[in-house]
Amino acid sequence: MADANLSPRQKMISLMYLVFIAMLALQMSKEVLSAFGLMNEKFEAVNKFSEEYNGSLFTQLGDKASENAASFGVPFKKAKEVKKLSSEFYTFLGELKKKLTADYQPNEETGKLPYESMDKGDKIDEMWFSGDGYSAEGKKVIEAIENYRDGLLKVFGKDVKYQFICNNIRETFDTKDIKANDGATKKYLDYHYKGFPAVASLAKLTGMQNDVKKTEQDIYNALIGNTQAQAASMKNYQAMVIMDKSAFFSGDKVTGRVVLGRYDENTVPSKVVINNTEVDIAKALEGGQVKFEFNAANVGEHDIDGQFVFKEDGADVPIPIKDKYVVVPRPNSATISADKMNVLYRGVDNPLTISFAGVSDNNVNASAPGLRKDNKPGKYLINVTRFQGREVPIKVSAQIDGKTVADQKMFRVKSVPNPQGAIRGETGVIKGPKSSLEVSTVSAVFDSFDFELKLRVKQFAIKIPGQPTILVNGDKLDSRAKSALNKAGRGDQVTISEIKAEIIGNSDYILPKTAPVIYEISR
């Protein structure tokens, strides 16, 4: 580019190219670059911890193999193969990171790389890609990922005990082509690394190292867990939660114990006594369990006392039964809850569950503006589009023992949030070729809204640098917009704003202002 033999015109073109590249670099927010750097640091910290933790798991498995080679010898052999494969691939990824950051000097005081300056992606683009395909270096990267994946799968073969681990390995280290948001199919490295800032690629490589550590950890845990299962069968055992009380009030500490219980149909007691009453074992015994029933006492906490009695060497062996149960008053208030959140939104059918504890649905009556029953017991829908207040009361009454008990609850009423303008379903600032924008649909979507509302765009304004704003009816570019778009150049940002949208099926509801979307021309 600095060749003295270049013509003045060629020199001018080269200079314009440099200015263009500089302008592109300025468009990458320094905050975004710093965020990628922080993400990389987080991965590095987790990887350091995982290194120590995985080492302790490996040592634990080695100790078990020394003590019990019959049960743990083969799993430890597998662990050594996994450790070797993981260490080699982790080191390979580390070398890729060194090459990527070779041109950047870390801060002398903090040791951190200059993330805000790592906005170029040419290093990896030159190393890994050649035309539309991979360079020799890029092929080595793909080969290393696939060798690691296939090497781990070979360790376990078709052993069904480890197939859940194998499925995770296949998914985590899958290098197949990927379908991008614009519908184009891209190669694995193209999709993840081509054209990205160096700091983003660095974070992704460190993230893959994290995948290696996580996979290694899962495998060690599986090897230790499965060998324990082989050493002592637990098929007849089940975890049992024994609560200190069978009912707790709001604000109480929930206390209890977790024990292993064994169900064995061949272990039959000679006698079972519950609260001074002997249970008829012939009727109550089922699958190694003894069922019982008795009338509840007065309101309050009560003990359950009794004993299992087994015969052993001709003598009775009693096993105490100790527990508690709580009797609560008959309910006199309703349960009214919003299935989505404790807010009702205008413009939508808000689902509600309304019930009285212990009262059948046909004895419960609910009323409120815009409230109607749904097709299941206790289920209601309420539409507050035309309700003008900020809170709406929902009144409920129930018939209990021939008497009417009433209750009500207030719910806040809000408008739906502002939609986001979108192109190809993407919001914010997106990139793509002009040809893609020409045929794309302008849409409106909600960000993190619990209701799945379908919106229709009726009109929008499109602003292309150097061109007047054009108002377009419908959800696609018309001939005028396409003509103006043809004059846009690479790097130009096309702003689509003043988006007018409506809810499909409820066009009467006026939506809040829709946020604009920006489309940056990539070519």
Structural notes for this entry:
By secondary structure, the protein is of the alpha+beta class. It contains 11 helices and 27 strands. Strands 22-27-26-24-25 form a 5-stranded mixed beta sheet. Strands 8-7-11-12 form a 4-stranded antiparallel beta sheet, with no helix packed on it. The longest helix has 38 residues, at 30-67. The protein is flat, with a radius of gyration of 34 Å. 20% of the residues are buried.
Which features does this protein show?
11 helices, 5-stranded mixed beta sheet, 523 residues
Estimated helix fraction: 25-40%
Broad shape: flat
Q: How are the strands of the biggest sheet laid out side by side?
A: 22-27-26-24-25
Total strands: the figure is: 27
Largest sheet: 5 strands, mixed
- What would you report as the Rg, rounded to the nearest angstrom? 34 Å
A few lines on this structure:
It contains 11 helices and 27 strands. It has helices at residues 8-26, 30-67, 69-100, 122-128, 136-156, 163-172, 188-193, 198-231, 281-284, 434-439, 479-485, and strands at residues 129-130, 133-134, 178-179, 185-186, 237-243, 256-262, 271-274, 277-278, 285-286, 289-290, 300-312, 315-327, 334-338, 343-345, 350-356, 364-367, 371-373, 379-382, 391-400, 403-414, 420-423, 429-432, 442-445, 455-463, 470-473, 493-503, 517-521.
